[in-house]
Inverse folding.
């Protein structure tokens, strides 16, 4: 079944590390919603029925929690009008603790949102400041309580670690704090310095010094050890679920070559039948202009050839802790995985970086911190 | 024939040969202003980037002289760098005269003398030209004195030019007409032409550059190469006017090209004589002395399956670079390749770059070496230029290495630094003399191996560009040699081995390890780099392992970008060579040879 992603490109203020597309001019909200609805109409009209059944909706950003009740309602209505949303659908909305208005959570609930992803990031205010977040840790705590009270059982928390100067104790403290709220899902992202962000510029200037790789690796290792001990399922590099049923169904579509349709500036769509991926213009005014003229806001698209599909299957497969399913890979690419990659496989398993059993290949904990390197060894063999 | 003049422009490096050629080309109007660019004869990218001439280039200039008659001037611009003297010597074979340029502010330098001797050996009429007279630092009278005293030429006949500002250009053209002899030769005799260069054209096959000494040649003629008796039917003859310009016929005394559908690259040899199949000449033109390579190195393709492409490329390059000498070679680490001989380190770099650019190859070169003479205890004598073939040291009785006589000309103030540099390189000062009150000519005996390493660059830097240098090989002397091996994670990489003097071995070993550490990217495990002599480790570096390499986020919007990145990295790795488990970038092999910048 299809999954819909709605990119809400507004933020109260840009965080220092963020390279997602968003603007801070909230005055653009109304024309954005108009354009978005238009995009849905145009897109749905062109889509085959197969893509009309959806079982995941994901409001991401930016900061979708800045949407008013009316705006979010309008979007939801349109989705229900154009698509068949399954009864058991997973409907996620990302919430920034700094944008909470009274009653908003109840509104979300009423509009059918059944899963919240809360951008907590840290329980240390100094760290929140270092990241340029707009909220305090107390506001995060209040949000979590309020979400529980509003009846949200499926709560995911986003955390960031590997900050300059961060100690193991600090991070353990964050993890324990997070677990004290009994979340059903945790995303733990190692901080990266993305080109173009203020944090990146500060690093280049030398005013901040990233945590050394070996320290960051230790924090990652601790994350895995700690969460596994607490019964969490590590199912993707940065994602952990309290039970098999609380893994993000929507995000798994990205990794499993299932279809998804993205709306809003910079959103990506993928249809496996055609092996086509397309993406929207990453600019709000362009996006609005194009839709005003009745054009789809697609910037570009690509049709993946076998080679490109294989590269994606390799790196997405290795990012999942279940790994690459060998029989499926062989069927899909009409090849012999174990033979094709025999050199890398034996070398990597000998060094304890992967496990290669008859059914699948997956990274060990030692391999996970080197996922990109390991992936490139596989990709080298693709031609 | 009376109206033909064949001449070269020769000089020390940078004295303005190509710039003067530019002015002569412009004065005769064969190139429109729109198509003109500075140093137009330096047509290879590598020449333009480095600002030096590497290939001699011929250009045919129609010129109406002051005497009212039309002349054809065949000019050959030559390189000045010592590594390309072979290009000069071949150019001179097709000439009756030469303009010898002297930079008015630098005066006579090492290659001024060396090239003058080459011209005199070929019995050419030599006209001195004092160039760059526009420079505020020009000292025309002083240079005239040198022309008289050091060169033994008549300074009264010297033409004064500023190639940059177009001064004296007509004097050069008139000088060619009035002071240089026309070619001799019999246009009615059987064809007798000398191949002095060629190049490969993918559509037309080998394009042969030649000078006609007797007879004539035209399309339709069946020609024969005298060295191998192979015949071809001529499709086109013509002259070079920046582009190829076809002619109906070329006669004795002329310089030009021919195309004859020659697809077998090996058929054409530089120095060979072309004649007619049905009416052959009696005696071939005396060819060129064989080039004497001084540095040897092996060339391997980064991707082992590119060996056939390399073979093809080397054969074609050889057409256009007669000084390149090669034979098959193989290495445990690098597979099949070629052992090549070069006229110097710059020549080596140029060959690598041309092979890579013109034939789209990615190559690895092994450490350059000179040729050693080794006598074993059992009396057997070996010539070794490849560290891979170096015998067991316990079997060696005597090793000899080539020595050169180096002539270095510098302003007096650099005497100390040149002395130090040469002594550091195991040199012996044999002689020095003042050329005038401020310039010194110093003569050293130096091991060739020390010179090929990076001597010239160092000399340039310690003399701030004022030092000039020429050398000749004087023979071999006994030496104390060791083989320095490089081990990566305990595995000896044969392609990184070097033969070095025992006194330098430890320093070289340290240098090589340090350079490799800079060049080899971190990998998933620790990499140990060691330099060793026999079983003894003399230097060591380690590259720590990657501790972390993982992308935190990968959602719908990240997948395409991530895939493209992986694909790009994969392409970059084409330039990597796997040595055991370690990925060595191509640059690592070269880095070992370079000194610090
Ligand atoms: N001021 C001045 N500079 C000149 C003159 N002629 C040449 N140059 C400069 O000298 C430099 C070297 O000129 P080239 O013509 O490339 O010298 P070359 O002798 O061909 O050098 P190689 O081919 O490398 O041996 C360039 O920067 C020229 O612009 C001149 O008459 N006056
Ligand atoms: S709130 Fe989220 S999307 Fe907005 S700037 Fe911060 S990290 Fe980026
Ligand atoms: Mg030149």
């Amino acid at each position: 079944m299809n999954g819909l992603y709605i990119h809400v490109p507004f933020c109260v203020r840009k965080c220092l590390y963020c390279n997602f597309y968003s603007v801070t001019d909230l005055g653009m909200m109304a024309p954005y919603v108009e354009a978005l609805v238009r995009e849905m109409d145009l897109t749905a009209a062109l889509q085959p029925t197969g893509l009309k059944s959806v079982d995941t909706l994901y409001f991401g950003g930016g900061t979708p929690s800045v949407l008013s009740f009316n705006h979010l309602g309008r979007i939801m209505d349109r989705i229900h009008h154009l698509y068949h949303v399954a009864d058991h659908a997973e409907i996620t909305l990302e919430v920034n603790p700094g944008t909470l208005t009274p009653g908003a959570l109840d509104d979300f609930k009423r509009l059918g949102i059944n899963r919240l992803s809360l951008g907590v990031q840290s329980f240390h205010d100094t760290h929140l400041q270092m990241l340029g977040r707009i909220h305090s840790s107390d506001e995060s705590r209040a949000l979590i309580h309020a979400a529980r009270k509003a009846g949200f059982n499926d709560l995911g928390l986003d955390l960031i670690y590997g900050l300059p100067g961060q100690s193991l104790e600090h991070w353990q403290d964050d993890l324990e704090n997070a677990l004290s709220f009994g979340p059903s899902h945790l995303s733990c992202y190692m901080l990266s310095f993305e080109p173009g962000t203020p944090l990146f510029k500060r690093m280049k200037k030398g005013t901040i010094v990233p945590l050394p790789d070996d320290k960051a690796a230790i924090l990652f290792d601790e994350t895995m050890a700690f969460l596994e001990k607490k019964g969490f399922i590590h199912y993707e590099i940065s994602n952990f679920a309290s039970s098999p049923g609380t893994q993000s169904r929507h995000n798994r579509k990205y990794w499993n070559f299932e279809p998804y349709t993205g709306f809003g500036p910079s959103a990506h769509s993928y249809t496996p039948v055609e092996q086509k991926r397309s993406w929207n213009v990453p600019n709000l005014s362009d996006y609005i202009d194009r839709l005003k003229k009745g054009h789809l806001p697609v910037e570009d698209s690509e049709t993946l050839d076998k080679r490109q599909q294989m590269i994606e299957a390799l790196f997405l497969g290795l990012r999942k802790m279940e790994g690459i399913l060998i029989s499926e890979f062989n069927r899909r690419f009409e090849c012999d995985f174990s033979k094709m990659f025999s050199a890398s496989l034996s070398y990597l398993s000998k060094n304890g970086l992967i496990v290669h059993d008859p059914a699948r290949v997956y990274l060990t904990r030692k391999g996970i911190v080197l996922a990109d390197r390991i992936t490139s060894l596989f990709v080298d063999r693709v031609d | 024939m009376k109206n033909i003049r064949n001449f070269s422009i020769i000089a020390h490096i940078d004295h303005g040969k190509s710039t003067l050629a530019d002015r002569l080309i412009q004065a005769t109007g064969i190139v429109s202003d729109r198509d003109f660019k500075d140093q137009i004869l330096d047509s290879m990218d590598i020449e333009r980037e480095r600002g030096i001439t590497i290939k001699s280039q011929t250009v045919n200039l129609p010129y109406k002289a002051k005497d009212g008659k039309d002349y054809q001037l065949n000019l050959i611009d030559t390189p000045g760098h010592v590594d390309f003297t072979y290009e000069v010597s071949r150019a001179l074979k097709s000439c009756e005269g030469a303009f010898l340029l002297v930079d008015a502010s630098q005066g006579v330098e090492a290659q001024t003398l060396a090239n003058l001797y080459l011209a005199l050996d070929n019995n050419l009429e030599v006209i001195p030209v004092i160039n760059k007279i526009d420079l505020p630092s020009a000292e025309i009278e002083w240079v005239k004195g040198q022309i008289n005293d050091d060169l033994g030429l008549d300074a009264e006949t010297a033409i004064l030019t500023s190639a940059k500002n177009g001064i004296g250009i007509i004097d050069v053209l008139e000088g060619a007409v009035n002071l240089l002899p026309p070619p001799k030769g019999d246009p009615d005799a059987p064809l007798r032409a000398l191949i002095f260069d060629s190049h490969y054209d993918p559509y037309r096959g080998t394009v042969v550059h030649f000078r006609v000494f007797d007879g004539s040649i035209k399309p339709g003629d069946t020609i024969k190469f005298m060295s191998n008796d192979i015949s071809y039917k001529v499709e086109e003859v013509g002259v070079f006017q920046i582009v190829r310009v076809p002619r109906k016929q070329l006669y004795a005394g002329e310089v030009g090209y021919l195309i004859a559908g020659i697809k077998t690259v090996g058929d054409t040899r530089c120095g060979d004589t072309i004649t007619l199949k049905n009416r052959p000449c009696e005696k071939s033109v005396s060819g060129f002395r064989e080039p004497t390579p001084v540095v040897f190195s092996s060339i391997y393709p980064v991707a082992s399956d590119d060996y056939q492409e390399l073979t093809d490329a080397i054969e074609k390059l050889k057409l256009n670079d007669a000084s390149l000498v090669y034979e098959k070679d193989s290495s445990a680490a690098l597979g099949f390749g070629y052992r090549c001989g070069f006229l110097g380190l710059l020549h080596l770099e140029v060959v690598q770059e041309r092979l890579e650019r013109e034939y789209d190859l990615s190559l690895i070169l092994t450490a350059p070496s000179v040729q050693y003479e080794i006598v074993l205890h059992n009396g057997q004598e070996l010539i070794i230029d490849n560290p891979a073939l170096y015998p067991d040291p316990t079997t060696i009785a005597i090793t000899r290495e080539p020595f050169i006589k180096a002539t270095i000309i510098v302003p007096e103030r650099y005497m100390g630094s040149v002395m130090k540099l040469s002594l550091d390189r195991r040199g012996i000062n044999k002689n020095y003399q003042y050329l005038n009150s401020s310039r010194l000519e110093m003569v050293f005996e130096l091991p060739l191996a020390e010179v090929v390493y990076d001597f010239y660059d160092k000399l340039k830097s310690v003399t701030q560009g004022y030092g000039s240098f020429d050398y000749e090989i004087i023979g071999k002397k006994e030496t104390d040699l060791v083989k320095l091996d490089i081990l990566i994670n305990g595995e000896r990489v044969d392609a990184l081995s070097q033969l070095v003097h025992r006194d330098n071995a430890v320093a070289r070993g340290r240098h090589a390890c340090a350079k490799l550490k800079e060049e080899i990217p971190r990998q998933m495990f620790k990499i140990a780099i060691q330099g060793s002599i026999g079983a003894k480790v003399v230097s060591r570096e380690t590259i720590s392992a990657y501790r972390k390499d993982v992308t935190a986020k990968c959602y719908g919007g990240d997948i395409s970008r991530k895939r493209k990145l992986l694909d790009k990295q994969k392409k970059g790795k084409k330039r990597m060579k796997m040595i055991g488990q370690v990925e060595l970038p191509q640059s690592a092999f070269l880095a070992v040879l370079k000194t610090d910048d």
